[in-house]
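Lab notebook, bench 4. The sequencing result for the construct came back, and we need a structural model before the next group meeting so we can plan mutations. Quick request posted to the team channel:

Model the 3D structure of this chain.
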Amino acid sequence: MVDKYLETERLILRPWNEDDAEALYKYASSPLIGPVAGWPPHTSVENSCDIIRTVLSAPETYAVVLKNTTEPIGSVGIMFGNGVHSADMNEGDAEIDYWIGVPYWGQGLIPEAVNRLLYRCFNELGVKRVWCGYYDGNVKSRRVMEKCGFNFHHTETGKMSPLGDIRTEHFMLMTLSEWKNINKK
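Done. Here's the predicted structure in token form:
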């Protein structure tokens, strides 16, 4: 479980709790969100509650909460070791994943949250390289990675998604030295 809250200008990143199930369902039930990322839309508030208990209770997994409404509108997380997707990951690497509710697309909220997670990875957790991956066609996810300074690394074809279909996945990478260069300003 996440032991602290992380803040950005507009967001609080905090642990998910079962009281968030209704808000999670409100956004994660959209067919525009999960399938493009490889997971099925949530089917009920109870389904969302179960996802909070199982998936979203993982270490370093955060609800993306708007400061001005206190409503969770998406999720971000840092994964290590066997939770990651790329075959090219090394010891000391991490992967960031994210999604946000459709009404909040295009507002720069996920890049804001991802930048906070990059700070956590490189300054607080001692990570050397951070990965992000996106399936073919998920242009919005790729744009988040580009805005945050990730660089294309490689493509893996013939990958089984959690939905059971075969997809092409593209991987982007940021190293500690690249992050330091971006954040010199």
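The chain has a mean pLDDT of 92.
Will bring this to the meeting.
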